[in-house]
Amino acid sequence: MRHPRAPLLDDPLPVVTAADQADERPVTLRELTTQSLAVPPPTTGCGQAILHACHQAGFTPATRYVTADIAAQLATVLVPRTAIDPATPGIRTAPIEDRPILRLLFAATRHTETANPTTTAIVAALRTAARQSRTPRLPAA
Prior knowledge:
The chain is an alpha+beta fold. The protein has a domain at 12-106: D-Maltodextrin-Binding Protein, domain 2. It contains three helices and seven strands. Strand 3 (36-39), helix 1 and strand 4 form a beta-alpha-beta unit.
C-alpha cells in the first residue's frame, strides 16, 4: 500500500525585518513579544504554526496586520523561507534559535492500489529538488 503523503522538506520561518532595523543574528522567539507583527491568517498552516509556537513560548503575538499576502508581510514578520526572494532589497532575515517554527511541505497524492509511474516520478523529482537545496530559491521571473 502506498502512502498518499510524501514529506519533502521542513520550511523554517525566519524573522524578516527592514534591513535598517536589525542585524542577521539569530533571535529567540521571546524577543518577539514586544514586536508588532504582520502574520498570515490563523486559518492557514503558517498562521497556526506561528500562534502555536508563540503560545508554547508563553505569549500571544501582538499582531499589526493579518494578511495572506507574503509581500505585504515582509514589514516585520515571520515568513516561510521558501517565500522569501533573497535578492529582495531592503530586507534582512534572522533565524529563530530557541524555538524554530517549521512548516512541513509535502506532496499529497491520491491513494491507489498500484503506483502511477508519472506521479512517482514527480514526487521523486520534488524530493530531489528539496534535498539539493536546503536554502530554497524562488524561480526566476
